[in-house]
Amino acid sequence: MATEDKNRATAAAILPLVGGAANVSSIAHCMTRLRLGLHDRTLVDDEALKAVPAVMGVVEDDTYQIVLGPGTVARVTPEFEQLVEEGRASASETPGPVHTAEELADKGAALKAQQKTKNSTPFKLFLRKIANIFVPLIPALIGCGIIAGLNGLLVNLGWLTSVTPALAAMASGFMALIAVFVGYNTAKEFGGTPILGGAVAAIIVFPGVANIDAFGQTLSPGQGGVLGALGAAVLAVYVEKWCRRWVPEALDVLVTPTLTVLISGLVTIFGLMYVAGEVSSAIGTFADWLLSTGGAGAGFLLGGFFLPLVMLGLHQALIPIHTTLIEQQGFTVLLPILAMAGAGQVGAAAAVYLRLPRNESIRKTIRSAMPAGLLGVGEPLIYGVSLPLGRPFITACVGGAFGGGFVGLFNQLGDSVGSTAIGPSGWALFPLLDGNHGLGSTIAIYAGGLLVGYVAGFVATYFFGFGKALLTEFNVSQEPAPSTVAATGPAAASGGTPAKEPAGV
């Protein structure tokens, strides 16, 4: 009961600060964020939201996003939805009070606003649509991935042999039908009927396609995978919209779904499955080639440039690639390398903490946000500390580069390190690790990469992250304002504005 009261209190604290129930047009959540559609953005009190104890930060994107962290967001969202319904019924909501912002939080918010403007290009908006298709699948990928790892461990140890077949079924069932879920979400995101998108995508995984010849070869169930499902569902949306325009209304309920499935299905069977299958194979082959030949160099570049990719919104293009690799090989070799960017950020934050011994405000921010950063939720540290300071953001990227180079080197030497799901990073990725040389070796390599990222980020920031002017400006006594001290949540003092989804994101 105490937990329910806490979640409801958090929801009740947030609602007036986003303009009340009348200002909320849509409510959704991903792994860490409460995503709100708002009628009037000017009614939102950003700084007061950042001071709410459970709030780690805010992001203004295509939706207004409030970071609450994994687990918490799934519990707060239903309470928030209920309060919105109650508020709409009574129409008595009013905006909350205004709190004073910290200097770094202001800088972080301004940088995020600037970046949002730059990110509103057609290509980046398209990438957001792609991300919105795959992000809802992350909880199932994580759950099934952890069960798969547990099952593999039991099989290797020869324990609970009567249970392992059941665990294998639990772990593999979702992946066997992931194309259907992708098709459903794709049609929903592109404005079609979701179930028709799922129906067309289901053709790809239907065992009976093994009896069909296309392009001189027999099709295989699952050929084309998630990419084929995505393409098939997009095609279904366009066919459906065309039918809605031309089919008489009296016949629409019969003709439109029939033509949508028929036309899209034929194109999928005799075209998309083959093409998407070739593209999927090429992605897997390229990833293997990149890390087996480029190894340390490829890892260095991937780990070093991931945070800038996030800032540009281009990281969303990697989500279908991760999913394709998981579908093909059982794990994605890219995610553990990209996770090193978070390790560099943690190391950089530790160095900032030591370099600014008299700035209690920033040090409090770092103490509050560091546990989340270690678990892969680096947004409060990024937008609350390193990016507003400037140079520490660059040195954090340096730390990520060295960590990525370390993991990439072992891939080059033949020890593949992968993740069975996307989303988590940092220490939270350990339960999802998999590779080709045993779990112990995989864990050791990933842990070594994190350590290298921490150390490199710390050293680079400590020695090169501060100029004299920056030290003079920030290394002074700056006790937090009373309103900030009162906010004891993980990122309340930071005002940090998040930069990304878990790697996922």
Automatic annotation (TrEMBL):
Q: Where is the chain membrane-spanning?
A: 133-154, 166-184, 191-210, 222-239, 251-276, 296-319, 331-354, 443-464
Q: Decide whether keyword Cell membrane is in the record.
A: yes
Name the UniProt key words of this record, in alphabetical order.
Cell membrane, Kinase, Membrane, Phosphotransferase system, Sugar transport, Transferase, Transmembrane, Transmembrane helix, Transport
Task: Give residue spans, biased composition: Low complexity.
Answer: 485-499
Q: Looking at the record's lineage, which domain of life comes first?
A: Bacteria
Protein location: Cell membrane
Q: Which residues form the PTS EIIB type-1 domain?
A: 8-90
Name where it mostly resides.
membrane
Membrane topology qualifier: Multi-pass membrane protein
Record bears the keyword Kinase: yes
Residue positions of the active site:
C30
Q: Where would I find the PTS EIIC type-1 domain in this sequence?
A: 128-480
Quote the Pfam families the UniProt record gives. Answer: PTS_EIIB (PF00367), PTS_EIIC (PF02378)
* Region Disordered: start-end pairs: 485-505
Q: What InterPro entries does the annotation carry?
A: Glu_permease_IIB, PTrfase_EIIB_Cys, PTS_EIIC, PTS_EIIC_1, PTS_IIB_1, PTS_Sugar-Specific_Components
What's the protein name? Answer: PTS transporter subunit EIIC
Which organism's genome codes for this protein? Streptomyces atroolivaceus
